[in-house]
Amino acid sequence: MLGATGRTGEHFTNRALAEGHRVRALVRSPEKLAAHGERIEVVRGSITDTIDTDSLVAGIDYVVVMLGDAASQRRTKINTAFMKRLIPSMRRQGVRRILYQAGALSRPHGGRLSPALWLIRNLIARSFIGQHRDNESVMAFLATQANDLEWIVHRAGIYSDGPSKGRLQRSSRKYSVASFADCADYNYRMVTERSAIHTADLSHYE
Ligand SMILES: NC(=O)c1ccc[n+]([C@@H]2O[C@H](COP(=O)([O-])OP(=O)(O)OC[C@H]3O[C@@H](n4cnc5c(N)ncnc54)[C@H](OP(=O)(O)O)[C@@H]3O)[C@@H](O)[C@H]2O)c1
């Protein structure tokens, strides 16, 4: 789990633990983790450190990525750089599947944004431009250099925290402004969803 202390990642981690899974989480600040117990293994570090990514993924079934640092991503594509180290480690360790959460305002590789999303991205959400570009670069990397693995991208349309507003469904066109909890629930279902492999779809409420 990458991003376990984040707003989506915390919900995802709690859900995975509640369902009886074991979780290995790379975190910069272990004290921020809400989840405790013998089923969570905490590895302290940053994706920008020279961490041992082979050890990080050894023995796991799924990699789940809900990383974001808008300030750093304005300067450098830190997620892309990390994914370029992580994917070879997954291959070496025989880990097949990865779910990566990007945003609805990030253009999928080979696709384009609707005019409405393009306007929101370039006007209202302009301060997140580095994050969009990093997410787009990750999607391009996965689509062009990692199709031997089972990657899944969720282009989430999160806007608010708060309680569940319903159940999100996958869509190539429709999107909803969702809560972090609902995006985490969607990601939890999607990581084992075979039909989502090699897609970079949006999500919307039924
Ligand atoms: N927030 C939104 O409204 C929104 C909307 C659409 C899409 N998304 C996408 O969803 C993803 C996650 O968003 P979020 O809002 O749930 O995340 P978030 O609350 O901003 O949390 C980001 C997580 O990434 C971790 N992280 C950042 N830099 C790191 C580093 N160098 N090393 C290790 N961990 C690091 C953070 O750790 P720390 O606790 O140490 O900071 C935190 O756990 C992002 O890709 C974002 O583009 C977000």
From TrEMBL:
Ranges for domain NAD(P)-binding come to: 3-172
Q: Which PANTHER family match?
A: FLAVIN REDUCTASE (NADPH)
Mind telling me what this protein is named?
NAD(P)H-binding protein
Coiled-coil boundaries: none
Would you say which domain of life the source belongs to? Bacteria
Classification from the root reads: Bacteria, Pseudomonadati, Pseudomonadota, Alphaproteobacteria, Sphingomonadales
* Entry-linked SUPFAM superfamilies: NAD(P)-binding Rossmann-fold domains
